[in-house]
Amino acid sequence: MNFKQLRLIVESLDDQLFTDVSYEEALDLYNRLSEKEKKYVAPRGKYVDSPALILRKGLINDNCCYAFCDVYHFKDDDPDTGIIIVAVDPMNRGDGSGKRAVREAMKAAKKQGITKFIYRVDKTNKPSQGLVKSLGGKLVDENEKDLKFEIKQ
Questions:
Q1: Per-residue 3-state assignment (H helix, E strand, C coil) for 7-67
Q2: What does the pLDDT read at residue 7?
Q3: Which 3 state secondary structure label does DSSP give 69?
Q4: Residue 9: what pLDDT?
């Protein structure tokens, strides 16, 4: 078996791990985060099942969600723009789970006409800054607390 064949098999298996994630599954992961990390996911202090959510994709293993990406669209946003929220279980950080969850969510959102994504990152959250930059995110705005990145498909 050559490298290309192996990569196709891995990608096929990887795709099978991605699924729609329920609010309850995402909330379970959210509750495993530190208080500081919870603020990255839910800046207002509580992770809620918002009517602005258009999709939630994640990675499930052993009936446990270990990474998810929410895509939201608010009525005042451009029709092709989605807002991204990402969470990764502390035990899975650095293994590419967050990046894979975002890519899968973006792929699914594109089918719904969303081609531009906004990802707000706390200035102190260096791993998320690295994630968004690795996805081609461009810094478009910042304030004293947050950096606002835009990712286009």
A1: HHHHHHHHHHHEEECCHHHHHHHHHCCCHHHHHHHCCCCCCCCCCCEEEEEEEEECCEEEE
A2: 61
A3: strand
A4: 57
